Amino acid sequence: MPNKKSNKSFWSVGRGGGRSNKSHDEKRYSGEHDDRMGHSVEGSKFVHSKPRVSFKKQNFKPDKFRNNFLKNIDEDVLMSGSNNNVARQLHRARGKSFPRGRNSPLPRNDHRNGRVPNLHELTGWSRIDIPYGENYTKDFVINSLNRFVAPLIFNPLMYKVEGKNAHFYVDDGDVAKKLKDSNEYFERNGHKMQVRVKTGVEPPVRLSDEIKEKIKLVLSKRFITSTMALDLSKFHLDSDLVQDHFCPLNRPSMLDHVMSIVAECTPDLQALNLDSNKLNTPTQKGFGSILKKFKNLKILYLGDNKFRDIHFLNNLKELPLEELRLEGNPLCNKYLKEEYESEVRKLFPKLLKLDGVQLPPPILFDVDDQKLKYPPTNQVFVVNEQAKEIAKQFLELYFKVFDSGNRSPLLDAYHENALYSMTSNISQGPNYKQYITESRSLNRVSDLTKRRKLLKTGKISVLSSICELPPTEHDLNSFTMDVSFVTEAMMIITVTGLYKELIGKISKDIIRFFNRTWIIVPQGTGFCIANEELHITYASTQQEKKFMSRPAAVHSPSLAGPSSTVSVENQVPLSEEAKQHMTVELSAQTNMNIEWSFKCLQEVNWSFQTAVAAFHEASRQGKIPQEAFNK
Amino acid sequence: MIDAWLKIKKDYSYTMDEDLRAKSDQACRTAEEFTKLYYESLDKRRYLMSRLYMDTAILVWNGNGIEGKDKIQHFWTELPASDHTVITLDAQPVTVPAVANQLTFLVKISGQVRYHEKSAKTFNQNFLITALGDKWKIVSDCFRTQEALES
Hints:
The structure holds 2 protein chains of 2 kinds.
Chain A: H1 4-14, H2 24-30, H3 62-80, H4 85-96, H5 119-123, E1 126-130, H6 138-149, E2 157-162, E3 165-170, H7 173-180, H8 182-188, E4 196-199, H9 209-222, E5 223-224, E6 229-231, H10 252-265, E7 271-273, H11 287-291, E8 299-301, E9 323-325, H12 337-347, E10 353-354, E11 357-358, E12 380-382, H13 385-403, E13 414-424, H14 432-438, H15 448-454, E14 456-457, H16 459-468, E15 472-486, E16 491-501, E17 510-523, E18 526-538, H17 541-549, H18 576-590, H19 594-603, H20 608-620
Parallel strand pairs in A: 6-7, 7-8, 8-9, 9-10, 12-15, 13-18
Antiparallel strand pairs in A: 1-3, 1-4, 2-3, 5-6, 10-11, 13-14, 15-16, 16-17, 17-18
Helix pairs in contact in A: 2-3, 3-4, 18-19, 18-20, 19-20
Chain B: H1 2-13, H2 18-44, E1 53-61, E2 64-67, H3 69-78, E3 82-93, E4 104-115, E5 121-132, E6 135-145
Parallel strand pairs in B: 1-6
Antiparallel strand pairs in B: 1-2, 3-4, 4-5, 5-6
Organism (chain A): Trichogramma kaykai
Domain TAP-C (chain A): 577-631
Keywords (chain A): Leucine-rich repeat, mRNA transport, Nucleus, Repeat, Transport
């Protein structure tokens, strides 16, 4: 049971500034035990007025009292980092249970009616004015006040003498409160120094170039290269900043600025200490995304801040944290010790140390970390080195002719009884109909007759299909080549890559991805294709980007060695046999007789595509005489 | 001369002989069954994969060659779990002299594959399969995902 006398003396001391004797945080918690005292009437003297102090038992709810009391103790003790505060807290808490008397002259405090303390009050910056401060040295003022607030300690921010007066700021609400009581103390002890306290007042934050430079220096001073650690604790009190600059990390703009410098200079930071920076969740919305950048961060200190909810850590789940300090934040009081540990562990399963205490090692399931292990992609595989040159030359020649505008010479690349078929899943955009109708995908085409029809048999038929494919420009740099099977008698070559489908001058060219499998067999002195299966599909967005950004040279093949034996286009001589085949094929397609088909092909220098195009053009204009169709 | 051409035209107009037609139809049927079995095994019963290969078979996976069915089995076992979806499928009979006495098909597949929970990739795969006694076996298996190469 508190004794009345001691309470009275407490009150009498408290009269000066005692109305705001509780921190604003406490007020939030204190609820019914609020003493309803105002805190804004600065400098009024209530020393002589004797308020009626009564102990209203009915208002005293021990449980609640205890909870609030503990909360306050925990919070304040941890925040100020000194156990000496317990006595003070106890004392003050006791005082709290004495409500303001009904006839008290004190103004009713409004926050009981739902007023929410503003941010400045929560963050606890205060301005201290010393009238006639010019008469004292800074050391004298600070030392005197520090003696008074002991065992609290404070470090003055931006101590300035302006005119006759001096002023500075403190970052600790408890210190500010205590300082409000100092006038009477000084008076009693014969000092003339006056102290004016304005809580919830902070200097403006300016990010001038000068300050930015200063911050960089401070950051490099606080960085330890050997451990990749950065100590930003009590940043605003840094000896290089405190005199002239206000750099509170609880301001989002300041935190953002500082952390982006850090991210830029040391993205592989391993340890970060943000203790005692008044950080709190509402103002630190971007907090997670700022810290997330440090992928190697193993140690993170966030102690003695104002975080009220553990969920702000959700954003940091990805970090490989091994050590975390959170003590001294209001959130710690929300949980029992075991709960607290397990809540934190949920977020960081591999955490080894929390608030300086070694955690029992986590027991995890013996799974393979779910890391996907793929062998790296190789652009070329050849089961047999000797086959490599053959395959390279073969495909290089093939695609040169294929892209040349006249694919007819490819006739000689195919075996007499060659088989060819194509599949595609292209179902929109230019030329899609052609792909769809020619696609022999067995899960789409179930009709046996159609399947047979789409399997092109014999070199003329194959060439005809090849010639009907849209004009192309292949990018050999994008090619892969697998020669998976090689014997004296046959070889399997699979080529994949990108090509540009040349649509015309107006519309944009399209990038396609193809995958071609050949079985080639020796013929004469060279090789020819016995089987060909072609698949054509859309290029992926990434492939398109790559294709667009490639150097202008189209044929700078990474696959092909020095271009040796191979020559291009028209230099590939067309055999008489090939000419005969083409003539027959043109005749079959156009219904012109053999003679006219021969003439037509001759005129266009044996380019089958050109011949077909020329026929259609002439036919459209009615220039083909009837005799061309006489057989 | 025109007569000669006409003769060629006649030869050419004949497209597929009986034998080739039969083989071609069989290639399609076999490929459909094979594909189903292959991807079911690969996605759900990997430990059985080696049964599908000849002893001397080769697997080429994104340019990495693995030779011999035991090594292939090991490779598949180590690879993250997969889920394949076939989009297009094609098959041809192989009639080159080298395999004249051996029923052999070339099978080509395109589709989507998903490893673990990662996003799907497009892949292409082709097989040379051959009848060994009364079983189909893979001679060559060549797989590639569709990707933008770093070059």
